[in-house]
Specification:
This protein is of the alpha+beta class and about 375 residues long. It has four domains: about 35 residues; about 80 residues, Roll (SH3 type barrels); about 60 residues, SH3 type barrels, CATH 2.30.30; about 170 residues, Aminopeptidase (3-Layer(aba) Sandwich), CATH 3.40.630.40. The protein contains eight helices and 23 strands. The strands form six sheets. Strands 15-14-13-10-16-17 form a six-stranded antiparallel beta sheet, with no helix packed on it. The chain is globular and about 60 Å long.
């Protein structure tokens, strides 16, 4: 990056006197002081059809798209955007939808040490540790309740911790910090939660801007939510774990038969006639479920920063026929290109799980 900066400045400043030399040096120091230096790292793309732009921001033109699981050499970072090396030239992608592989990214002049001697305490047995800040990374071990780990960094909802002389990552909402439990405290422990991945089989649900089906997204969300709930000790049952058809009555009947503490029906919205529509909404049938709907909607918005499309009382069959605390969640618009890209991101799916679980914890505290 230093060579790149010198090249730019050299072409704009004629070094004909000490005055210009001083100007050059000062300019370099200023730019270096506000830039991030990325050492020998690669960007792993986490979504399909991610726009590559000719500058660090959405105001710049799109020059191409990159796709999930592709990797690109990182040149530098600026204001949440990453410049990557392409086959011909370079381009910029938002940092939100990538994972950085390789060595560390640090701010100029900043050392990555333990954060103010902060530590976290594991709140459930067999909590998994991973190589990186996402469930896409390999599991490298597990730890039991009560274990205390030193914290090096906090990135994207994950703590980087010291474990057996290695660096490892753990979700921030599944641990306690400084002796107190986070919002992820296991109040869901021993609760029976039935998760309904909406649609399936011949019922494809809504169709996204990419052509993908709603049924594909709902099963991904249901499985990820199940994974995190089980870490916290919940008993989780899926109405479907594969691409199969199940009647609405059958879904509600399962929740009733299992005497579920909560029944969650997962869905995604679509309005092709209004492609800019976006945001999350929560629906309930019985007045008794209004608190559940409120706590989940509020925590979901906090975790994802999605637009709030409100809490509504509606007579949907799947919640109407359930005799257990039930809500139907619309977790975004797959007809909106940008929101569908979010939904495809594993990082965003983790945020959805975090929000729902925090909402459940709040509900169970009543």
């Amino acid at each position: 990056m230093r060579r790149y900066l010198v090249k730019i400045l050299w072409g704009n400043i004629m070094l004909t006197s000490k005055k210009y030399v001083l100007t050059l040096i000062t300019s370099i120091l200023i730019i270096l002081s506000i830039s991030s230096i990325v050492y020998a790292s690669e960007a792993l793309i986490n979504v399909n059809n991610l726009n590559v732009r000719n500058g660090p921001g959405t105001d710049f033109d799109t020059i191409m798209q990159v796709h999930e699981e592709e990797t690109y050499e990182i040149i530098r970072e600026q204001n949440g955007w990453i410049e990557i090396q392409l086959e011909q030239g370079t381009g910029w992608i938002t940092k939100e939808f990538i994972s950085i592989q390789g060595t560390e990214t640090v701010e100029q002049g900043e050392d990555k040490n333990i954060i103010s001697n902060q530590s976290v305490t594991i709140i459930h047995d067999k909590t998994t540790l991973r190589e990186g800040p996402s469930t896409d990374y390999e599991i490298i071990g597990n730890v039991n309740q009560g274990t205390t780990l030193e914290v090096f960094d906090h990135v994207g909802g994950w703590y980087e911790v010291q474990w057996n002389e290695e660096r490892a990552y753990i979700p921030d909402w599944s641990v306690g910090t400084d002796g107190s439990l986070t919002n992820g405290a296991p109040s869901v422990k021993d609760k029976t939660i039935v998760i309904d991945a909406g649609h399936g089989g011949r019922d494809v649900g809504a169709i996204g801007a990419s052509g993908n089906f709603e049924k594909e997204y709902t099963i991904i969300t249901a499985q990820k939510l199940k994974y995190y709930l089980e870490i916290l000790g919940a008993n989780v049952i899926l109405t479907r774990s594969h691409d199969n058809y199940l009647s609405l009555s059958g879904r509600a009947s399962l929740a009733n038969a299992m005497n579920a503490d909560v029944f969650l029906s997962i869905h995604y919205n679509s309005t092709p006639q209004f492609p800019s529509a976006k945001g999350a909404s929560t629906y309930y049938y019985s007045e008794r479920d209004s608190i559940l709907a409120t706590t989940i909607q509020e925590e979901l918005l906090k975790a994802t920063t999605m637009d709030d499309r409100g809490i509504h009382q509606e007579s949907f069959q799947v919640t109407r026929e359930s005799h257990r605390p039930s809500v139907l969640l619309e977790l975004g618009f797959i007809s909106n290109i940008s929101e569908e890209q979010n939904i495809q991101s594993s990082v965003f799916q983790e945020k959805i799980s975090k929000g729902i679980i925090n909402g459940l914890n709040e509900f169970f505290s009543y």
